[in-house]
Amino acid sequence: MTQPPVDPAVARNQPSAGTSTSISEPQTDAPGPRGLARRAMLLAGLGALVGCASQRSGRNLPGAIWPETRTLADAGTPVPARSTATTASSSLPGVMPRGKWARGNLNPAQANKMTPCRYITIHHDGMTPFYGTNSGQVAIQIEKIRAMHVGSNHWADIGYHYVVDRSGRAWEARSISYQGAHVKDQNKGNIGVLCLGNFERQRPTQQQLNGLRVLLLTLSTRHRIPGKNILTHQEWSSASTLCPGANLQREIVGMRRSGVLA
């Protein structure tokens, strides 16, 4: 398929043909999600973390499953009032601020401004399984990911906008004022949410799933994003990945079937 022209703001950050000195932030393009095939092999070794460090091949994957009718949320799940804003401030109630973990700032010269938010994409980190639960351990892990994205991939910042840890806390990552770097060719208007862990090799905790659910409902309400536009990384046609891992993918499908996400 012929690719659309590259945004000049992104193109100037790309290496020229034949060079391999840096990895540009993933390109942006119009969204095009579809159901994909489940793959069987996890990328061996971490190397440079490019988004999620797991790739797919082999088995068939189900597409994004959405029932015809859904309730907004489980009873007792807090859902904030709906706003007409589509590009809001980066701060959300109850979210740990970036200053709690980051040792560096986003480089605005390397990043594109965010367009109105239309999608949310869920990821795992695909690294060595992470089991830390206290805030100090989590802060170190998020900074490690940021350092790899900036130092190895030469991106403007950590690629994701929010992170959910194993205790269910949500953390501010890249400012939502800027496009993320988390889905190839699909970063315009796409909020990236990372769940810490490798869910091909471990399972998310119930606290992490609860925290993810509340964050997704908060973001979808604030930005008026319909449930059908809450996707996992592997559900994008431009992606070739196991992300967010079989164990988290199964939980997201379950949330859809039970009507938790709307």
List keywords for this structure.
five-stranded mixed β-sheet; 262 residues; 19% helix; disordered N terminus; alpha/beta; Lysozyme-like
How would you describe this structure to a colleague?
This protein is 19% helix and 8% strand. It is globular and about 40 Å long. The chain has a domain at 103-262: 3-Layer(aba) Sandwich (Lysozyme-like). By secondary structure, it is an alpha/beta fold. A hairpin with a 5-residue loop joins strand 2 (162-164) and strand 3 (170-172). The chain has helices at 8-11, 135-151, 206-222, 246-258; strands at 119-124, 162-164, 170-172, 190-195, 230-232. The chain has a five-stranded mixed β-sheet with strand order 3-2-4-1-5, covered by helices on one side. The protein is built from four helices and five strands; from the N terminus they run H-E-H-E-E-E-H-E-H.
